Amino acid sequence: MTTVYTVVILALFVLILFGFYRMQKKHVKFSNRVFIALGVGVVYGVIIQLLFHRESAVTTQSIDWINIVGNGYVSLLQMLIMPLIFVSIVGAFTKLESNKNLGKISFTVLATLLITTAVSAFIGIMSVFLFNLQGAEFTKGAAETARIADLASRQEMVQDLTVPQQIVSFIPTNIFADLSGARATSTIAVVIFSTFVGMAYLGVKRKSPEEAEFFAKLIQSLYKIVMRIVTLVLRLTPYGIVALMTKVLATSNFAALLNLGKFVLASYVALGLVFIMHMLVLVGVKVNPFVYLKKVMPVLSFAFTSRSSAGALPMNIETQRKALGVDETTANFAGSFGISIGQNGCAGVYPAMLAAIVAPTVGIDVFSPIYILTIIAVVTISSFGVAGVGGGATFASLIVLGSLGLPVAIVGLVISVEPLIDMARTAVNVNDSMLAGVVTSRRIGELDDEVLNDTEATVTSSL
């Protein structure tokens, strides 16, 4: 009967996909299709779990096939990350009329990402205090024990890495290896390499304008090709989201959610407050938060379901340019920097919360203002180079806890609810990246308010 039930589940899933295909043919608005996909995925996933349980053979086999659509979609987007970073940043240099804004753009993007990360770390610590989270409350099961053993081996990779050594690790030694994503810091390495290529172009432009013009045309051609691929892949978003959401709800451990409910609630409260902080920053730069939210929800929905900041990069950049009115140069810098620097959720809130929870277990007064500032400083510095893919938060936590001399077991003890928290963390990461773009574009006077306030100007108009 297992095979029969699996076939029925997959047949229904194919019908769901066909329904979204019909909606696309009838030109149903893309954002509406995304939200419908989110809801359908939730309902279908809950039904599968209620009928067959998350660990049953039926659920396992069904989700394995459904993953072809969900994970396949994420893989297609991840395929574009390195090429998109390269052509986006180099292309931004070729479109600069002058380099007078280059320093201001880079500084403002980085400052926004890092300052919001510091504030996010503070919010995470305050959330721990508010909910009175204590390390002794977390229990250890078989899965947690295995996870802790794995973390112990992973910590050996970073425990002897000083902050200066960590900074050096960002510099690419083999750009071809980094273009393949071989290292945890490959994304920031590609950003650095692309920036050097762009600066070299500006130098060639002054001395050999003809060669520079040829190179600029080549890069613009590559950019258009890559962005065309982006458009083709983004059209698959509703299908990907319904598959990803079905998997999340069908395989979630709701018993663990109840056991660690206070930690999950504290995490979501902290992430919610960070999101509110983002909205206040928008108000400060004279951007209507409600208009902004309406335009970015498709991107945040994908980030929430896929748990991949890097995978959201194509839609992130396109949304900044076409929906929010951010100039192309800033959008490319903010999007590319945001997947490897200053991620508010994974590299801000989460490691700060874990540090504040575990510190009292080793006799540290976590209420000390000096120690709170120490956590915030370490979290902010360590937020450089955190990969915008699954596992980035774990990597950031290992660095932070190791730098503070704290045990890493806490990271393994929350493994059961990690995916549920990671969904919101990723959405916050992506939102901060777009926030940096809007703030920077406003500062240099390039934010197009006409596009920003035009309800018809969306990234989804051609999808």
UniProtKB/TrEMBL annotation:
Q: Which GO terms describe its molecular function?
A: L-cystine transmembrane transporter activity; symporter activity
Q: How does it sit in the membrane?
A: Multi-pass membrane protein
Q: List the subcellular locations.
A: Membrane
What keywords would UniProt list here? Amino-acid transport, Membrane, Transmembrane, Transmembrane helix, Transport
InterPro entries, sorted: Na-dicarboxylate_symporter, Na:dicarbo_symporter_sf
TM helices/strands, residue ranges: 6-22, 34-52, 72-93, 105-131, 184-204, 225-245, 265-285, 370-389, 395-415
Main localization is membrane
Q: Which Pfam families match?
A: SDF (PF00375)
Q: Which PANTHER family match?
A: L-CYSTINE TRANSPORTER TCYP (PTHR42865:SF5), PROTON/GLUTAMATE-ASPARTATE SYMPORTER (PTHR42865)
Which protein is depicted?
Answer: L-cystine uptake protein TcyP
- Organism source for this protein? Vagococcus fessus
